[in-house]
Design a protein that fits this description.
Number of helices of chain B: 5
Distance between the termini of chain B: 43 Å
Bound molecules: cobalamin
Helix content of chain B: 10-25%
Largest sheet of chain B: 4 strands, antiparallel
Strand content of chain A: 5-15%
Shape of chain B: globular
Number of strands of chain B: 6
Number of helices of chain A: 9
CATH superfamily of the largest domain in chain A: Cobalamin-binding domain
Distance between the termini of chain A: 63 Å
Number of domains of chain A: 2
Largest sheet of chain A: 5 strands, parallel
Structural class of chain A: alpha/beta
CATH topology of the largest domain in chain A: Rossmann fold
Oligomer: heterodimer
Shape of chain A: globular
Largest interface: A-B, 10 and 12 residues
Strand order of the largest sheet of chain A: 2-1-3-4-5
Number of strands of chain A: 5
CATH class of the largest domain in chain A: Alpha Beta
Radius of gyration of chain B: 17 Å
Order of helices and strands of chain A: HHHHEHEHEHEHEH
Helix content of chain A: 55-70%
Order of helices and strands of chain B: EEHEHEEEHHH
Strand order of the largest sheet of chain B: 1-2-6-3
Chain lengths: ~230, ~200
Amino acid sequence: MPTKEEVLEKLKNGVIQYDEDACKEGANEAIAIGMDGNEAIFEGLVAGMEEVGRLFEAQEYFVPEILMCADALYAGLDILKPHCKQMDLGVKGAVVIGTVEGDVHDIGKNLVKMMFDVAGFTVYDLGRDVPLDQFVEEQLRTDSELVCLSAMMTTSMIGMPKVIEKIKARNPNVMIMIGGAPTSKELADKWGADGYAEDASNALKEAIKMVSFLKNLRAEKEAEKKG
Amino acid sequence: MLLQGATLVGVGDVTQALTSEIIHLNRAIAIAMNRGLGEDTSSKLIRLQSVAEGWLKERGFRYLSIPPDSDRRKGKFISRLYKLFPHKTAATCSGLGWVGKNGLVINRDYGSKLSWATVLTNAPLVADLPTEKSQCGNCNLCVIHCPSGAVTGREWSINEPYREIVKYEKCSTMKKSRRLLEDRPNCGLCINICPYSRNGKTVKT
Ligand code: B12
């Protein structure tokens, strides 16, 4: 039996070396030794993708390598996903999520989505390169408490304040969270978003805070009406 | 490099044919398998590709494999890059054939009966001489016999890679109407009529 460290190393290197077979093998080993899927994904596969990002910036890797790395990551992810422990954090909600128009980077968004799945949220995933108005429409259609916007480029993130403004105008009782590498807490505040998180597990924590806040708010209003 | 089991293998300098995403991969390894052998050529080609990948990776080179059935592979991220590079370019740049009047790669010995796979790489492999011009000459069998009239008879040259040689809409319209009537919509006439596909046997018209 391999140790936990060996498995994590294999998953990480599998992504960096764009080796789908290694990622599949590592994922199956992780399950065999009883590791939690989440840990294998974030400490293994995602850690590898972070290194890939550095290699890309150093111009060691180019687009074909990045794509093969992404395929390797997903090969492992597909196996590990069903083995993520379902968490019951007391709060559940509905969330609309997507990567904004002009942006096809969806690896990070998919990881955030996965955290919501694991926590038992209802997730409406609009995918990537999503026209801005579609976020507004989907929120109204589903009456979700939360809208999550992801962007990985400085050129695409400028769509975010437009979506935030539109959603707030139509429905002020919606919580909006943004994320993705070029965004920040400061930008979120400036654009009037209700939340920001730098990674997927913090995204879930923030979401839970926001949804509980919203639910309390609604309950208070109900009570006021009655009283 | 040994790629055992391939019908033909060639290396082409494809610098001229690359878009910015893959500009660093200026050598194409063209691998061809004779479909006439009746085996599962597609999976065999993919196996050969992974042998080449392993060889390149071990030596620290970059690569991009374009599988034989590239147009039917969608689910993966990497499949978005497949359309950036046609097998035909690999085949002609490595001197393994020209684009015939039938719009398909024609090889001197096997005609259009080959299936192709490509591995692009930055390994400085010695390139074969490219085929620069069509060798169809005066032969117009595929033009005459194409039931949909799609084959125009224009000749290919490496300097005009995007010239319209076959009117593909005509061919696919006919395929669609045939599919309603029979199980095998592919007519394949332009392959089978080609004297090169018949191992040089000449046909009378
Ligand atoms: C993988 C990748 C690609 C892949 C994308 C595959 C895919 N389906 O996602 C491909 C090859 C397609 C690609 C294409 C391009 N890319 Co690119 N790509 C990257 C790369 C290397 C890694 C991104 C990644 O997946 N990281 C791993 C994930 C796990 O991290 P993450 O996305 O940050 O997500 C985490 C957090 O941000 C957060 N999070 C994410 N979303 C959200 C949402 C919410 C609500 C919350 C709360 C949190 C949250 O949680 C996640 C998990 O913890 C980055 C470089 C880098 N260092 O980041 C460049 C990068 C993003 N790309 C860049 C560019 C320029 C491009 C291209 C224009 C072309 C090019 N020449 O590379 C095209 C763009 C096409 C388009 N229109 O979108 C630039 C962007 C620069 C800028 N303008 O800001 C970067 C930064 C590289 C660089 N330094 O130049 N790319």
